[in-house]
């Protein structure tokens, strides 16, 4: 909050007792506001993701995203649920149920639950099952949507690209150079890139999805790195292997694309249809790359093109593109089930009326024939357009509120854990007791501004 006042806040002297008190006040105010907003939700969804809190204790972060009748969106932390190896899905469900009760939301308006899709705990899947059972019990004709978030998982890259033989050498070499020649001026750009993205803690634990620029810097300095390692009596044979270098540059190109996709998916407060469009776009690119590589057309692999000497080089990477495409299709198949509903939300004036549920067809036809609203749609786009529907189209508006409430990913949960770990290093965090840490969680991820001075 108030980043422009960061330096002013840093100079304020606060006692150990005042810090927890103020954190508690802010958190309490945020929760009061959420309780007030919860009453007005016409649709809401939740996202759940496992992580570790400031004390490295396993927690399940649960966020809520609600939409009111004016299409205003509220996205806030609902609760942090402690997890143990024996936590059952029913126990997690009871905790989530109690949290929803505190915030005055109507269970019948729960639309979807999003999980990270990579959970090692059966209890999270059991939680989803319990939520579905609760909703179906309240509304017999309603089925809770369950989706795996559209954030790219590490396993998607590590298992399907099968490029550990490249990445292991890069990590080992950089680590050795950093400990023996970090003052070498030719490597300053490489280390600057590392420090900018990962701080001084660069290690073999660096995430695959964060390696694009590091790989590119490494390739740009390949000759210098090879010379330096050889001069220190630590030659790395792979650095002069043509086949290994081709694998390196292919990885540079594909990770650049994956990095761009990952960043686009992590933008805060995105509509689920925007995220699905990004995934669909990337799948189409994979299909195009597969076709191009079969013809040894390296137009979209510029770094590979720089070192390619054989007209069959592109063929070597078709299996990896196919694996990646298959994994994307499998991993994000949940959203394919709801594609017609998503399309009705994002493209109401071009959707085929035969693909619309009978309950909504009459209203959608009326909407498609309304030239004034069509002009407004072209002008403001979604989701702003839905605020201009007034009192008409009640069934269609309800459908749109449900889609707008959906989480496209669990990134907001992952971001919370990241922020909490950063806050652990602040000078006041050690003064916070259990209640203060609980309050800090709510302050760490506010979408609503607190009404305290």
From TrEMBL:
InterPro entries: GTF2IRD2, RNaseH-like_sf. GO terms for cellular component: nucleus. This is General transcription factor II-I repeat domain-containing protein 2-like isoform X1. The gene is LOC106980996.
């Amino acid at each position: 909050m108030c980043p422009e006042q960061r330096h002013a806040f840093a100079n304020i002297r606060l006692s150990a007792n005042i810090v927890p008190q103020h954190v508690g006040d802010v958190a309490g105010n945020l929760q009061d506001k959420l309780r007030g907003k919860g009453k007005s939700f016409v649709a809401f969804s939740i996202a759940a993701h496992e992580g570790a809190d400031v004390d490295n204790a396993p927690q399940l972060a649960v966020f809520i995203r609600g939409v009111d009748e004016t299409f205003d969106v509220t996205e806030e932390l609902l609760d942090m649920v402690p997890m143990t190896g024996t936590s059952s899905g029913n126990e997690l469900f009871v905790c989530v149920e109690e949290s929803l009760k505190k915030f005055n939301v109507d269970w019948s308006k729960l639309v979807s639950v999003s999980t990270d899709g990579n959970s090692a705990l059966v209890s999270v899947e059991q939680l989803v099952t319990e939520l579905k059972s609760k909703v179906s019990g309240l509304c017999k004709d309603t089925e809770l949507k369950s989706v795996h978030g559209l954030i790219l998982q590490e396993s998607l890259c590590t298992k399907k690209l099968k490029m550990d033989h490249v990445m292991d050498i890069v990590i080992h070499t950089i680590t050795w150079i950093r400990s023996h020649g970090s003052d070498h001026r030719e490597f300053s750009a490489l280390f600057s890139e590392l420090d900018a993205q990962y701080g001084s803690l660069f290690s073999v634990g660096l995430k695959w999805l964060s390696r694009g620029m590091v790989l590119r810097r490494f390739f740009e300095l390949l000759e210098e790195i090879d010379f330096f390692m050889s001069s220190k009596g630590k030659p790395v044979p792979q650095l002069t292997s043509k086949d290994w270098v081709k694998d390196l540059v292919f990885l540079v190109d594909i990770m650049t694309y994956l990095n761009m996709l990952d960043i686009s998916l992590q933008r805060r407060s995105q509509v689920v249809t925007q995220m699905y469009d990004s995934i669909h776009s990337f799948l189409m690119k994979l299909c195009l790359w597969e076709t191009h590589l079969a013809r040894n057309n390296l137009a979209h692999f510029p770094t590979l093109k720089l070192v390619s000497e054989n007209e069959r080089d592109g063929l070597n990477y078709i299996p990896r593109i196919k694996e990646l495409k298959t994994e994307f299709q499998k991993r994000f198949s949940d959203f394919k089930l709801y594609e017609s509903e998503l399309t009705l939300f994002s493209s109401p004036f071009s959707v085929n009326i035969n693909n619309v549920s009978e309950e909504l067809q009459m209203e959608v036809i009326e909407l498609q024939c309304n030239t004034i609203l069509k002009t407004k749609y072209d002008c403001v786009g979604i989701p702003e357009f839905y605020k201009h529907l007034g009192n008409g189209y009640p069934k269609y508006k309800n459908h749109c509120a449900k889609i707008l409430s959906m989480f496209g990913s669990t990134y907001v949960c992952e971001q919370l854990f990241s922020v909490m770990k950063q806050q652990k290093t602040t000078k006041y965090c050690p003064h916070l007791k259990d209640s203060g840490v609980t309050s800090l969680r709510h302050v760490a991820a506010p979408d609503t501004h607190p009404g305290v001075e």
